[in-house]
Specification:
Largest sheet: 8 strands, mixed
Radius of gyration: 18 Å
Bound molecules: NADP nicotinamide-adenine-dinucleotide phosphate
Helix content: 40-55%
Strand order of the largest sheet: 3-2-1-4-5-6-7-8
Structural class: alpha/beta
Number of strands: 8
Distance between the termini: 46 Å
Oligomer: single chain
Length: 288
């Protein structure tokens, strides 16, 4: 076996679990299934062992700095680096389309701010020519934003992490102060925290690409489709195993030139900046 290493966050169930399963079969190296809860993680490992697969396990809560540092130290000592990193962990907006400030803060922390922790502590372990894939959403396309000021600012060629972080704080402040305007976000502002977090994630992906260019690491974000998992309460047109195919293609087989892109579930690159496009998430699709 080679010394290569692949890591998937939030992989005790859903799409992350299916990606780990696929990596165990197709990737020539060690595959890490990680989870915030050890019990759920070990149960997932047992399922894969029954299939004759041999993933490694480590606890990793992507919003817990100490957990992220423990994972970093483990990988550093045992393997020295990572070749494939899939940032998949996330939570849904709950069954309600409009949430409290506290819920919105939690969603933004897990779905966006976690990537800042991962960038600080785990990205430095990613080896030359490595691949990073951020699992975003159709909610992560710029067309989910309807506020003109933020469309312009997020579209800037000189975009910085400060711009993205201020966008996120603008949204959270509006929830805190009860000044959130539904017309600022697509689909009448439904699942706004999830949309804001995923837009921020896809925007950050492009900046991460620039930072990691020197090491020829690719960093892309993708929308996995509407997938039948716990997150959608079982709604969707894809199974998790089917949905894992494009992420697997992106980290294993896509050309080296695919960098800083926003990719759709069919593997095609979509123009993230096209804010007039009809790519934003419609809550009505959950009922169809
Ligand atoms: P899921 O079945 O709910 O799985 C989410 C995973 O993330 C679970 O393993 C969960 O662990 C984990 N997680 C949550 N918070 C975490 C934390 N702080 N640290 C580590 N792990 C954490 O959802 P899914 O549908 O597979 O979603 C996978 C990815 O696809 C997400 O990024 C999601 O936003 C994206 N996505 C999904 C759909 C869809 O239709 N399903 C559509 C667009 C995008 P626990 O079991 O401990 O909660």
């Amino acid at each position: 076996m080679s010394n290569k290493v692949a890591v998937v966050t939030g992989s005790n169930k859903g799409i992350g679990f299916s990606i780990v399963k696929g990596l165990c079969r197709q990737f020539d190296g060690v595959v890490y299934l990680t989870s915030r809860d050890e019990g759920r993680g070990n149960a997932a490992i047992a399922k894969l062992k029954k299939l004759g697969l041999e993933p490694e396990y480590h606890q990793l809560d992507v919003v817990d700095k100490e957990s992220v540092k423990r994972f970093r130290d483990h990988i550093q000592e045992k393997h020295g680096g990572i070749d494939i990193l899939i940032n998949n962990a996330a939570v849904a907006n709950s069954a309600d389309f409009y949430n409290s400030y506290e819920e919105n803060t939690r969603i933004v922390e897990i779905n966006y701010k976690s990537i800042l922790l991962m960038e600080e502590f785990i990205f430095p372990l990613v080896r030359e020519n490595g691949r990073i894939l951020n699992i975003s959403s159709d909610c992560g396309h710029l067309s989910n934003v309807r506020n003109k000021y933020w469309i312009e600012r997020l579209s800037s060629k000189n975009l910085t992490m400060d711009d993205i972080n201020e966008f996120v704080e603008w949204f959270l402040d509006s929830c805190k102060n009860d000044t959130f305007k539904r017309e600022d976000i697509a689909d009448e502002g439904t699942v706004a925290a999830y949309r804001v977090a995923k837009v921020a994630l896809s925007a950050a992906t492009m900046l991460q690409q620039k930072k990691l260019e020197e090491k020829n690491i690719s960093v892309n974000s993708m929308h996995p489709g509407l997938v039948r998992t716990d997150m959608t309460l079982g709604a969707g047109f894809y199974s998790a195993d089917q949905a894992a195919e494009t992420p697997l293609y992106l980290v294993l087989d896509a050309p080296d030139t695919l960098k800083g892109a926003y990719v759709w579930y069919d593997g095609k690159v979509r123009d993230w900046y096209d804010y007039n496009a009809d790519y934003y998430f419609k809550t009505s699709t959950l009922k169809s």
